Amino acid sequence: MTSPPSSVTRRRLLGALGGAALCPAASLALAQDAYPTRPIRMVVGYAPGGSVDMAARVAADILSARLGGSVVIDNLPGAAGVLAAQRVAASRPDGYTLLAGSSNEMAATALVNPSQRYSPLTDLSPIALIATAPVLFVAAPHTGVKNIDQLIALVKRSPGKYSYGSSGVGSTLHFAGELLKQRAGIFMTHIPYRGTGPLTTDLVGGALDFAMLSPTAAAPFIASGRLVPLGITSAQRFPTLPQVPALGEHPLLKGYELNGWFALAGPKHFPAPLAQKLREALQAGLTDPGMRRRLEDGGSIPATGKEDLARLMQEDTAKYAELVKFANVRE
């Protein structure tokens, strides 16, 4: 007959079992401490060279330097960033697939795109803001409009006669135009384009009257006198365009503010320790003057590290939902 285990043996057995139970947690903690141990894939839903791609490359360079690992940009353009966001939303939450996204696919497009297969607020894990991106409202010279007062007077005389362009239905640029119409009490026909290239061609050529454009896309045309800046969508004037008023400065547009933005996100159930590690690395890197200058030269305002990305996504989604109803926006 086998004798029962002694109290010493029982303690050893329980200790061994406890150690075994702790192994998965210990292994996970060790893996997170060592992260990254292989290249991180940063998916960008736009073509190389654009504003989102530029912000992503700044973030990738920061994370590579701060984490001591490789960050590879994977451009997957299509559907205003939706294709890239869907891929990230369906990926494993292991820290090796990130979305370098924009306010389009992280807040706006779900409201107007019935084919979108993810919800930004539930299927993406917000990590950190990279930068905000104000939008310029510009006029073609043939309109004769030099300021917002002239715009309002012109459009009110002939509602529906004049048009404004954006980078697509449900884009941040589109919603910026609809907010302007709502606040000013005017009606212009929205003309969606696939990208800013054809938009600026039509605008400069006189086939379009007004447009919402990024500062970098508009800058060379403003400098040559082929476009007239009327206002910027940020709450304050843009540092590199101090002569252009903020739209919210106009009495009829008081409180107007609607910016694009660029941010890092992962799939849902993203480990909080990895998100914190990425967030701290990015925020530290954004204090570097060289990195900040790269973003500013691209028409963006670098994040301060104090922003709450999850809250920003919720607030902008609610703001866009109101504008969808106002303008009866459909894809």
Any overview of this molecule?
The protein has 331 residues and is of the alpha/beta class. The chain has two domains: 39-133 and 260-327, D-Maltodextrin-Binding Protein, domain 2 (3-Layer(aba) Sandwich), CATH 3.40.190; 136-253, D-Maltodextrin-Binding Protein, domain 2 (3-Layer(aba) Sandwich). The protein has twelve helices and eleven strands. Strand 1, helix 2 and strand 2 form a beta-alpha-beta unit. Helix 7 (172-184) packs across helix 12. It is globular. The termini are far apart. Residues 1-28 have low confidence and may be disordered.
Q: Main sheet: which strands, in order across?
A: 2-1-3-10-4-11
Q: Which residue ranges are poorly predicted, with pLDDT under 50 across at least 5 consecutive positions?
A: 1-28
CATH class type of the largest domain = Alpha Beta
The span between the termini is 79 Å
Tell me the fraction of residues in β-strands, as a range. Answer: 15-25%
How many strands, which pairing sense, and closed or not: the largest β-sheet?
6 strands, mixed
The string of secondary-structure elements, in order, is: HEHEHEHHEEHEHEHEHEEHHEH
Strand and helix map with partners:
Elements lengths: L6 H28 L5 E5 L6 H17 L3 E5 L6 H8 L7 E6 H6 L11 H4 E10 L2 E4 L8 H10 L5 E4 L5 H13 L4 E4 L3 H10 L4 E4 L1 H9 L4 E5 L27 E8 L4 H14 L3 H9 L3 E2 L6 H19 L4
